[in-house]
Design goal:
By secondary structure, the protein is of the alpha+beta class. Helix content is about 15%, strand content about 35%.
Length: about 200
């Protein structure tokens, strides 16, 4: 099956089951087809509730991660949005990041290596709305983040990476880079102790 053939199924799972964001044993993969990257003016922000994998400790995240690295956010590569009967029901964004410091990496990775990372935020032009899966906020270009990443592989062998537990594994190193929707503040407070410990250890 081609990558394009997986679009509808994988995007539905991104919101409903978070397969792309946690354990993906279904064989379903998100598309890597080039999509239009759209601009936005004064969009609405919507936090989309979703079932995600959570972690009780930094140690649990370290064991689960295939890659742990401080990265610098680069360009948006693809924005994928799926509509059904005129309604938005899923989406995601692929971004490029560059490794600044690698702490747990795969062979051949090091400072300067670029990775394709799936982010659980997307902009829909038809509704002029930014959708945040589980309150996730897109990384800011040229800013640095501590990422705990799960490696995924397309059927053709191409790799991409997903932050563990959507928000757990995407840690902004500048506090102002995190502005989770108000309805998710309790969730943010739950993440804070793990994030603080991670930043103290890896910065």
């Amino acid at each position: 099956m081609t990558k394009k053939g997986f679009i509808a199924i994988s995007m539905a799972f991104t919101v409903l089951e978070m397969c792309a964001c946690s354990d993906n044993n279904s064989g379903i993969e998100p598309t890597s087809e080039k999509a239009m990257v759209v601009t936005k003016e004064n969009p609405a922000d919507v936090a989309v509730e979703a079932k995600v994998v959570s972690y009780d400790s930094l140690e649990d995240m370290e064991k689960s991660a295939d890659v742990i690295a401080v990265v610098k956010k680069g360009d948006i590569l693809d924005t994928i949005v799926l509509h059904d009967k005129g309604e938005v029901y899923s989406g995601y964004t692929f971004s490029q990041v560059e490794i600044v410091n690698g702490y747990k990496t795969e062979e051949g990775m090091g400072a300067g290596t670029t990775l394709r990372v799936l982010e659980n935020e997307f902009y829909d032009e038809t509704t002029n709305t930014v959708y945040h899966i589980s309150g996730y906020n897109m990384m800011v270009k040229d800013h640095e983040y501590l990422l705990f990443l799960d490696e995924k592989t397309y059927s053709d062998g191409e790799k991409y990476y997903v932050p563990l537990g959507v928000n757990f594994g995407a840690i902004p190193l500048a506090d102002e880079d995190y502005n989770m929707a108000e309805k998710s503040i309790d969730y943010f407070n739950y993440l804070s102790p793990i994030w603080s410990e991670a930043k103290e250890k890896y910065q």
